[in-house]
Amino acid sequence: MSAQDTEDFGAENPSEKSRMIPGLPPYDMDDQLLPREQRNPWCCLAWTLVIGTMNSLVFLINLLLMFVIFTVVLLPTIVVVYFGFQCHSQVLHSSARYCKSILDDNSSSALIILGFVIMSPLIVVAMAIYCSLARRLRLFMCFQPYSLAVYKGGRWCRYEGGGPCGCARGWNTQVKAWV
């Protein structure tokens, strides 16, 4: 088949097609323009400890926020399953007054089943709340790259808005996303 025949079928030249697909931009355009100077080993170690400590604190803040949100949202499930297991005669069989007068084995089993059934939608709700709150607070932008420890001249604030995480910048109303 000749080159003319391939053009008739609508096949494009691969080099033309690859120009249409945008590549990933560099991590930070300003820092990529000039080659940066490497730090000496001891300074690099000190900066690595600082950046590692900061990233660990941001991770712990994210973890604490997630724990609080999941605990509050899943509290009804926790309570229902707890009372179901506490009053069932085959599990704990508590001698509490409400277990003897109100809850028998059938109602305890119903509470256990109800707790596990409502757990799935509540986990989805908790995750949506956490994701929207983390996005609004820009918590994931607070992580610093390791290249700040290796090279001199990096910027701590990767975003123009101010603050180490760009949290001081106003909320962008143009960008909307469903969680």
Care to describe what's here?
It is elongated, with a radius of gyration of 28 Å. It is mostly helical. The protein contains eight helices and no strands. Helix content is 59%, strand content 0%.
* End-to-end distance: 51 Å
Number of helices: 8
Task: Please give the largest β-sheet.
Answer: none
Task: Estimate the global geometry from the Cα principal axes.
Answer: elongated
Low-confidence stretches: 166-171
Query: What is the beta-strand fraction?
Result: under 5%
Tally of strands: 0
| Helix-strand string | HHHHHHHH
Mean pLDDT: 75
Radius of gyration: 28 Å
Structural class: mainly alpha
In helices, the fraction of residues equals 55-70%
Membrane topology: Multi-pass membrane protein
InterPro entries: TMEM88
Organism: Pipra filicauda
Transmembrane segments: 57-85, 110-131
List keywords for this structure.
179 residues, mainly alpha, 8 helices, elongated
Task: Describe what is shown at a glance.
This protein is mainly α.
List the helices and strands and how they pair.
Blueprint lengths: L2 H6 L5 H7 L8 H5 L7 H33 L1 H13 L9 H5 L3 H33 L9 H4 L29
